[in-house]
Amino acid sequence: MPPAMWKNYLKIAYRNLLKSKVYSGINILGLSLGMAASILILIYIVDELSYDKFHPNAELIYRVGMQGSMNGNEFNMPYSPAPMAQAIKDEIPEVADAIRLGLFRTMPVRYEEKSFTEPITLVTDPNFFDFFGFELVQGDPKSALVGPNRVILTESTAKRYFGEEEAIGKVLFRGSEKTATEVTGVVTDPPHNSHMDFDMILSGESWNYMKDPQWSSNNLFTYYRIHPGADPGKVKSGLDAFIVKYFGPEIQQFLGISLEAFQEQGNRFGYVVFPLLDIHLKSDTSEEIKPGGSIQYLYIFGAVALFIILIACINFMNLATARASNRAKEVGVRKAVGAEKSRLVFQFLSESFLYCLISGVVALVFILLSLYPFNQLSGKTLGLGIFTDPVILAGILGFLVLVGLMAGSYPAFYLTSFSPVTVLKGKIRSGVKRSNFRNGLVVFQFLISICLIISSMVVYKQLQFMQEKNLGFQKENVIDLLHTRALGNNAEAFKQELLSQSGFVAASFANTLPPNIDWSSVFRTTDTQQDFLCNLNFVDHDQQQALGYELVQGRFFSREFPSDTGTVILNETAFRQMGWTTLDGSQKVSGFWNVNSEPVERTVIGVIRDFNFESLRATVKPLIMTLGPTPNNEMAIRISPGNPQEKIAQLEQLWKKHADGAAFEYTFVDSNFARLFQSEEKMGKIILVFTILAISIACLGLFGLAAYTTEQRSKEISIRKALGASMSHLVTILSKDFIVLVVIAFLIAGPLSYFLMEKYWLQNFAFRTTIDPVLVGISGLISIVIAWLTVSYQSFKTAASNPVDYLKNE
Length: 810
Fold this sequence. Notes:
This protein is α+β, with helices and mostly antiparallel strands. It has 24 helices and 23 strands. α9 runs parallel beside α12.
C-alpha cells in the first residue's frame, strides 16, 4: 500500500476522532481502562507462572510426598522419611541426584547482645547449591554445609546481625539450647518467585532427625532430579516398590500386622511425586514451606481479564455500529468512485488501531499509577522493571493488536457492507437485525458484570462466615507465646508470677496451639486391631481454662490426680471413630506418644466437643490430648478484654526476667486463624476491584448508546412533549429498553453464578456459607439501579429540553 494511502487513512481516522469528541472519549476511556485492568492481571498471571523457573534443570526436578487414608481420614502431605533420598539415588537408575530439606519455623537465635527469631530455617544436605539455583555470595558451596553446627545466612539476615562486618567465621547461638553454630556462608535472599523461603540454612548434620532410619516417620521434604530423557513414570514405580520393601516391615514391627492386613482394614498409603514447577500453583497441602498460589484462582483472574477486555471491545463495536448512519454516505461515495471493499475494511481497522494505540498509551499511564496499590492488593512486588522485559513488552504489543482486531473487525465489515445505491438515496437504517445484535452485546456485558457482582458478594459472605464461625473454643483474647522452652527451670515461676498480675486470666503450655495442631501419629484401641490416624496435642492441666474447650463427657486433666500422666482426652470425632458412644472409664488407647519405642496404653478420661484446629477448608479430624512437659514449645495466655498492648508490655517484662535473654515472640490465636484465609481475602479484594471496573466500563458503553439513542429519538420526544407527555413518561420511554436488557442479563447471570460458585469454589471448604436468593436478588437490584442511573442522565436531559430546539427546522 502506498505511503500516501497510509497517510490518508490516518488523517481521516484522526478527523473522525476529533469530530465526535464525546464518543471518542468514551471509547478511549473504556478501552484504556479495560486494557490497564487486563494487562495488570496478565502480568500477575505471568509472575505466578514464573515460580521456580530460575533453578537449573527445573523441569527435571520433582518432590516426593505421601498420600492416603486411615479409617476414612484422608491425608496429603509433602513429607517423606529421612532414608528416602539415599534410597532413591541408590535404587532408581533414572534419578541423578536427591536432596532433603527440614524446616524449623521461628528459630530463636542470639549473637552477643542481639536476640532474634528467624521465621524460616532450612536444614539440608551439603549438595544444596548443586541442586537449586540460589547464589552463594560468600563461602564455599561445596563445603559450607559439611559437618555439624554450620549455618548459611541470607544477605538480609547477615546484615541484621553483623551490619557491614564480615559474617563468615562468626558464631551464633541457636534454639532454646543455645547451640553454638558457625556462620560458613552468605546466600542471596530467595527471589519472590520461589516456592521456598528461608532466613538461614543449617547443615543437615546439625539435626539428629536427618539420621533417623525409620520409614514410618515422615518429616522431611525430599526432592530428586532425573537424568535428561528419563521416564518419570519409572521413578514412581520405584517409589511404589519402597512401600512393600521398607514401609511394610515397619508396619509389622510397630503395629503387629502385615501390610496386607493394614490395607484390608481400608487403609491406603502411597508416595506421590510433584514436579517442582507445579508446586506453587497446584499443591493442595497447607504444609508448604511458604503459602502457595492457586491454579484455580489463576483461571478465575484470567477469565476476569478476558471478560473486562471483551466488555471494552463490545463498547467500541456497539457505538461504531449504532452510529453507522453517520458514516454510511462516506462509504457509499467511496464505493461509487471505485473503492475496493478490502481497502475500506483496512481503513476502518486502521481507525480501530488508532483508538487502541491511544488507549494503550493511556492504559500504560493507568498501570504506572495503579502498580503500587495493585501490589498492596495482590501481595506482589512488581516494579517498573517489568516493562523492560522483552517478553512482557512483546506481549503488550501483541495484546494491543489483538484488541484492535477484536474491537474493529465487526464494525469494519458491517460498515463496508452497505450498498452504495441504498446509502446515497438516504435509505440506510440500523435495522432490527443489527439492533438485536447490539442488544445481545449489551446483555452479554451486563451478564458478565452481574456474575462478577454475585461472585464478589459470595466471596465476602464466605470470608465473613469463616471470621464469625464458632470454632468450638474461645479464640479471642488469647496470646500465643512462642519458644517457651527457653524458660527452662523458670517456667513455673514465670507462669505463677504472670497469673498474679491483673488482666491475665489463664496460662497453659502446649506443644502447638490451634490452628497449628499438626502432629499426628497412629493409635489403636485396646479392644480392637483397628488403627487410627489422629492428631496429637501435648498440653498441661490448664489448657481447658486457657482456650475454653467444652467437655461433653468425663473430666479434664487435674493436678488432684497424679495418675493423669497416663491418661488422654479425645475429641468427639476420635471417640466416635473408635466405636464408642459412652465414656465408662475402661476405654484405652495405645500409641507411641512420640517418646516411646514400644506402644503404651493410656486411659480415656474425657471427651471434648469438636473444635476447628486447622483451616476451615478441612473437616474436623480425630484429636487426642495428653499431658506434656513443662515448659513446652508454646504457651496459651488468656487475657481480659481491652488494652492488649499494655498486657503485652507486662508480659515482655516478665519474659526478660525469666527467659535469660531469649527473643520475645508472640502472636494472637485469632490472628493465626485469620492468616489461614488470606488467599481468599486477597482474591475477594481483587475480584471486587475488577468488578467495579467491569461495571464502570459497561456503564460507559451504556451511557454512549443512551446518548446516541436519545439523539436519534430527539424529534420523537419533542413531539410527544409538545402533545403533553409528562417528564416521567418520557424518561420511562427512553430508559425502559435498556433496563429490560439488564433484567434479561440478570435472569441469566443469577442461576449461572449460583452454579459456578457453588460447584467450583464453595465446594473447596468443608465449612461454608450458603448462596441465598436474597444475595442474588440484591446483586440484580444493584446492577439495575446502576444501569438506570447511567441511562437516566441522558433521558432526563432530552426529556427536559425545549421541543422548539428540535422542531424549528421541520
